[in-house]
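Title: Comparing notes on inverse folding

I've been comparing how different people in this forum approach sequence design from structure. To keep things fair, I'm posting one structure and asking everyone to reply with a full sequence. Here's the target:
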């Protein structure tokens, strides 16, 4: 096979058409092997409001890494894709598009408006799938789902009805969060609290039948239109004489009682608190205790309603301005004190949320939460990575409130409840028989259907569904920590309730992607990054490498174009290494590679560098696999990077030139085989992270066949392990590096030959590899012996297992050499102190694995030998 790799890696050329080839080959579908262990993931559904953002790209990249690796390891893998209808966001987007043409949703009516939303869904679902393709995610499209699919809708209705029949879903009038722009209720976790500038308005209320006034303070003066009482603390001596009397609300002149309640804090403000039950959660509780009326003074759109007197029809903030002006004119505005305080904003529309009394549907959370909490102490517990997020989950479940699930929208699952003129209500999976029934106009919170995603997508409520039986519970969920409350927790308690099982075994939590300054990406800051723009410039593989290596689980990551440049450079390095290998091994067959590797393993052929790189490859495979299993993709990437760039490319490839430029054809054949094998294994290790270019190179290797997508993942081959070769080449590399460093210190280029003496107990080995030493250090004379006379004027270095001397008469300053060696002595002393401290820690020695402790002891012996040798050399130079 001829080399077809271009001189420079071009991601656009490599990735073009590759995804379509994978889809045509059906390599992403489950293997169907009944003997294989199933491994399943359901993709966190992006909503259909627009393009993928970097957070979604991070989710999908990490999940694709997991599923690709498991597929290569022989698991029966299913990665099920899908999308979320995103009720509030999508309806708002479509309404905004219609508004551009002067059309309101009400002009169309519910059914025609929904037709427009379905058109939007089809348009943006296509866009998202195209972006998935550019990301290279290996999902099974034959199982693609959407939260408004009929099958999922059936699951939603069944869950609603069952919870209603148990008394865990109810309809009632309660104080809820209201979004005046979207004109819908919001759950607590759809409210984002932001710190904004505001004010405390100090207002006086007159005592009925007297000239006396009480002073109250509020940040929302317009809400006095809905006041139904004033409270004081019964222990507050200042106001005991007023309890049982009434106050007159200014401007609207409504009379309300003065009551006592512990909610009034004598130490806070004036000690007098206005009660607006329909617009404040604390006031609502006070009203419930005292059976107070609840006056809603606001319309759905945030304007003042008929209970607002002359302010009716004004926007709530405009009403505030006029009320403050009127109070000032009446002399009942005492003061305005600026304050910086937190105010709830809608997560979807960004407007200030209004606490508002409303009739809504709720899920009673106490039993569902108890079940989820209890499950975390069983064998079926969900494992969080990092584990600290289990505490986040538990704390939220322990403090969860009833969940308001109705939304005043048209786009979504319409609530399966019907009413007739007789005031009767019917709840069921299907419409009631007979005439005169009208379905509830509200829809369910999007998270209600998303909470069922892991099992509703598998065919539930049909528990005999093949996918449900085979792939549920799912294996791993990957998501950001910002939706643990929104989604993860709800999937857990709903799955436990309806399937009796946790929805997934593992939850891998990642952080947020921030800009280079550490700021959260947002439209307002204009610092967002479109992943498709990044892919167009650098390719998907470079973006995926950055996303997988950017941080540890649970940590935020800063996007950086410098890091993207580094990712591209790394791929280009592997590309060029591959070109070199292909040019030198294009006619090597798979059988020839296998035969050569057997000879190397049996030590009947091959040199020490071949055995070294195969040993290092084994170590890399073992450590990368271990880190991948722990979802430590950054650590795995670091190990891979070091092996590929340093050991394989910078050292082994250079060392092979001693063979490849030589005359021994049999030795060349062995080296070619080892080069091809290591490259093959490197591509397989990299493939889950960087699928496109690894496939491109893999299919050009002369010793491979088929797609790398379904190629076997590398395994440790013990027959390749050779500790002596590993230690020997490590010494060789350390020696060559030391010579280069010494030459640099005295400004002696490699082109100038200089004498070299090496004193070592391993003289036999070093003499055997002397051709490598000569090629990479250019000695004029090379002397290697177990014992030799140390020259007086020489630069020296102590490496593991050897002492190196370069007699550089005329180039060396004895005082400078002593100073250099004293710095080196200090370095070894520091290393000795660190290891001694670790070994002196009884807890470490008692709890660490035996091999870890032994490794530290070996380091101690090595550092001590180097310390003693350098110290002796300093003494020699000082004596002379």
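Reply #1:
Here's my take.
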């Amino acid at each position: 096979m001829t080399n077809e790799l271009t001189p420079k890696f071009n991601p656009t050329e490599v990735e073009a058409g590759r995804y379509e080839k994978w889809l045509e080959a059906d390599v992403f579908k489950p293997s169907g092997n009944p003997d294989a262990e199933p491994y399943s993931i359901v993709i966190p559904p992006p909503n259909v409001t627009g393009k993928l953002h970097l957070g979604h790209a991070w989710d999908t990249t990490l999940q694709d890494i997991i599923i690709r690796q498991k597929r290569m390891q022989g698991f029966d893998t299913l990665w099920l894709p899908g999308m979320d209808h995103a009720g509030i966001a999508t309806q708002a987007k479509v309404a905004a598009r219609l508004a551009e043409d002067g059309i309101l949703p009400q002009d169309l009516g519910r059914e025609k408006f929904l037709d427009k939303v379905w058109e939007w869904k089809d348009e943006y679902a296509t866009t998202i799938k195209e972006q998935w393709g550019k990301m290279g995610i290996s999902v099974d499209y034959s199982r693609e789902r959407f939260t408004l699919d009929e099958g999922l809708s059936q699951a939603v209705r069944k869950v609603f009805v069952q919870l209603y029949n148990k008394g865990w879903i109810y309809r009632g009038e309660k104080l809820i969060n209201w979004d005046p722009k979207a004109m819908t209720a919001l759950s607590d976790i759809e409210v984002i609290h932001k710190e904004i500038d505001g004010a405390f308005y100090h207002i006086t209320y007159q005592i009925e039948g007297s000239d006396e006034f009480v002073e109250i303070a509020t940040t929302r003066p317009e809400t006095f239109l809905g006041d139904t009482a004033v409270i004081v603390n019964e222990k507050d001596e200042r106001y005991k004489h007023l309890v049982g009397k009434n106050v007159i609300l200014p401007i609207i002149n409504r009379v309300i009682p003065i009551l006592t309640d512990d909610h009034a804090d004598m130490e806070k403000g004036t000690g007098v608190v206005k009660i607006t039950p329909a617009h404040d959660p604390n006031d609502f509780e006070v009203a419930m205790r005292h059976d107070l009326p609840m006056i809603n003074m606001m319309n759905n759109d945030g304007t003042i309603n008929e209970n607002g007197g002359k302010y009716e029809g004004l926007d709530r903030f405009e009403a505030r301005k006029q009320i403050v002006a009127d109070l000032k004119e009446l002399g009942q505005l005492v003061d305005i004190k600026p304050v910086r305080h937190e105010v709830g904003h809608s997560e979807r529309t960004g407007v200030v949320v209004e606490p508002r009394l409303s009739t809504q549907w709720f899920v009673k959370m106490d039993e569902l939460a108890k079940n989820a909490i209890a499950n975390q102490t069983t064998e079926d517990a969900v494992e969080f990575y990092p584990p600290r997020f289990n505490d986040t989950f538990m704390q939220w479940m322990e403090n969860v409130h009833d969940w308001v699930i109705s939304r005043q929208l048209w786009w979504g699952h319409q609530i399966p409840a019907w009413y007739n003129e007789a005031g009767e209500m019917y709840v069921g999976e299907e419409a009631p028989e007979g005439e005169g029934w009208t379905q509830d106009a509200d829809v369910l919170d999007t998270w209600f259907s998303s909470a069922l995603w892991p099992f509703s997508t598998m065919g539930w409520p049909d528990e005999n569904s093949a996918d449900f039986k085979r792939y549920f519970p799912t294996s791993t969920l990957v998501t950001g920590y910002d939706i643990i409350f929104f989604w993860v927790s709800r999937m857990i308690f709903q799955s436990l309730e309806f399937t009796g099982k946790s929805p997934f075994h593992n939850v891998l939590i990642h952080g947020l992607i921030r800009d280079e300054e550490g700021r959260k990406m947002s439209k307002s800051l204009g610092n967002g990054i479109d992943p498709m723009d990044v892919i167009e410039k650098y390719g998907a593989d470079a973006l995926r490498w950055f996303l997988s290596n950017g941080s540890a689980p649970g940590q935020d990551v800063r996007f950086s174009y410098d890091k993207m440049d580094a990712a591209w450079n790394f791929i280009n390095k592997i590309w060029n290494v591959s070109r070199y290998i292909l040019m030198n091994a294009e006619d090597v067959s798979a059988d020839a590679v296998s035969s050569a590797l057997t000879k190397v393993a049996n030590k009947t052929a091959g040199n020490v560098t071949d055995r070294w790189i195969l040993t290092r490859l084994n170590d890399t495979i073992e450590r990368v696999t271990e880190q991948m299993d722990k979802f430590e993709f950054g650590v795995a990437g670091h190990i891979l990077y070091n092996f590929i760039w340093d050991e394989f490319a910078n050292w082994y490839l250079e060392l092979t030139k001693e063979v490849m430029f030589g005359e021994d054809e049999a030795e060349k054949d062995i080296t070619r085989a080892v080069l091809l094998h290591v490259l093959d294994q490197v591509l397989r290790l990299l493939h889950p992270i960087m699928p496109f270019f690894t496939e491109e190179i893999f299919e050009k290797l002369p010793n491979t066949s088929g797609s790398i997508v379904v190629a076997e993942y590398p395994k440790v081959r013990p027959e390749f392990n050779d500790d002596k070769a590993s230690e020997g080449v490590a010494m060789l590399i350390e020696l060559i590096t030391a010579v280069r460093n010494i030459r640099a210190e005295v400004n002696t280029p490699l082109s100038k030959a200089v004498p070299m003496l090496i004193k070592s107990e391993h003289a036999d080995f070093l003499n055997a590899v002397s051709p490598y030493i000569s090629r990479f250090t250019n000695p004029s004379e090379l002397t290697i012996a177990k014992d030799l006379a140390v020259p007086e004027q020489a630069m020296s270095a102590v490496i593991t297992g050897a002492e190196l001397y370069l007699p550089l008469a005329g180039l060396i300053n004895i005082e400078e050499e002593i100073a250099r060696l004293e710095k080196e002595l200090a370095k070894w002393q520091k290393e000795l102190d660190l290891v001694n401290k670790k070994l002196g820690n009884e807890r470490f020695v008692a709890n660490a694995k035996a091999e870890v402790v032994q490794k530290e002891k070996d380091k101690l012996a090595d550092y001590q030998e180097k310390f003693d040798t350098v110290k002796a050399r300093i003494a020699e130079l000082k004596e002379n």
